[in-house]
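Figure S4 source data
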Amino acid sequence: MSRLGDLIKLERTRRGLAHKDVAKKSGVSVGYLMEVEAGTRIIRDDQARRILKTMGMEKPLESDFSLDDIASTVDLQSAMPEIAKARQKKAGDQQDKTEDVNITGSIWLDALSGVLQHVPIYNAVMNEVGSRLMPVKDGKVEGAPKDKVYYYKAPDDDMRGFRVHQGDLVLVVPASTVQDDTMMLIQTPQGKMLRMMKLLPRYQVMLQKYDQAFESEIINMTDLQIVGKCIRLEADLV
C-alpha cells in the first residue's frame, strides 16, 4: 500500500472530485492516478505534492508536518476516525456547509495534529537540538503524557557497554522511583547522566556505567534524583 497514494485519495474524496477531474488538472492519466491510490504504482513525493496542489491544497506543509513525515509515520487507515471527526467538526463550523469543498488547506492534515507529535531532542544541558516525529495514541506517546516525553542525546561513551554511544538518542519517559536493571536518566551535582540501576538491600542503589571498563557507585536511594526512565535507543549505523 502507498501512503502517498492514501493521502491523494483522502484529499480527492474529501473534495468530492472524480478521478478524471484530478487526472486532467494534474496532467496524468486516470489509470495512473487509480494505480497510485490503490498502491500498485509508486509515486515520487514531488509529484504527489503537485497533484495535491492541483486539488486546491495551497500549502504543501501544514502544522509542521511534511508529506515525508506523514507517509513514513502514520498509518492513515488507523487515522481515519480522527480525520472523519475533524471533517465533521469543520463542516459543522461552517454557516454554509456547501463551502466545505472549498476550504483552504487540508482537513486530514489538521486531524493528524492529534495523532502526531514532534518529540524534542535535548543535549546534556537540556537545550533543544532537534526533534523526532512520533505517533500519539489516546493523548500519549509510548504510554506517557505526550508533553513529558523527550529524547536525550548521549554526551559521551560512558554507557557504550550498554550499547549507548556518544550522540545516540535515548527516549526518556517520566519516572520518579528507581527501577531495577533499568537505564535511567538521573540528576547529579555534575549534571544529568545516564546510568544502569541495580537495587541493593538497605535502600541502596548501584549506579553502573561501562566505557573502557565496568564501573559502579553505590549510593543511598534518598540521595538519588531520578529524572526519567529510558525506554528506546536510536543510533546511527555509520
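Figure S5 source data
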Amino acid sequence: MEKKQFSGAVLTGGRSKRMGKDKASLVINGRSLLEMQLEKLRAAGIKDLMVCDAPGNGRNIPADARLVEDLLTDKGPLCAIASALSASGAECCVILSVDAAAVSAESVGKLIRTAEESSADIVILASPSGIQPLIGVYKKSLAEDALALVNSDRLAVRELFRDHPPVLLELPDDSPELLNCNTPEDLEKFTALAAERHQ
C-alpha cells in the first residue's frame, strides 16, 4: 500500500474576542502559539506547512511556511479547513487550531498514524464529552464538499461529518491537551502547563 502524504495547516483566522488580542502571537516560554503548533507539524516530518488566516491580515509567518488566506471572509473554521484543503500539496492535511496549543506532538503523531491505517476521510481528537474537530486529519478530497457547505451557509464543521463520519482518537476528559486558549485565564493555565512539561 502506498504511504499517504501529509501537509499541515495551523488555523489563525479567529477574531480572538474573548482573549482581547491576537492569539497566534501570544508567547509562552519564549515561543508564540503559532510557532508551538508549527513545531508539532515539523516534528511529525511535515514539510508542506500552511498558516491559514483571514484575508488581509498580513500575518508574518516563518520562512518554511506559506500563508493561505480564507477563500471567503468571516465564514468560520469550516471555511478555513476548506481553504487549507484546497491549498494542500498532499493527500491528507493535519489541521491544528492555533488556540489548541496544549495538544502534544505525540497526539499529532497518533492522529497521523491513525489516518495512515484508516480509509476514513477524517480523523479527529475526541474525549467522552465531545469532539475536537479543529485537531485532526482531513483528506484533501473533502475540499469541494466543505466549500459547498460554506457556500450554503452550513458553517458548522460537524456538517461535514454527516457524509464523512470521522474516526475518533479519544483522550480522557481530564486530559490537559483538550484545553483551548480563549481567555486570559486560559493563557495562565497554558503557561503553567508549559512550565510543567519543561521541568
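Helices lie at 33-43, 76-87, 105-117, 143-151, 158-161, 184-197. The chain is about 30% helix and 25% strand.
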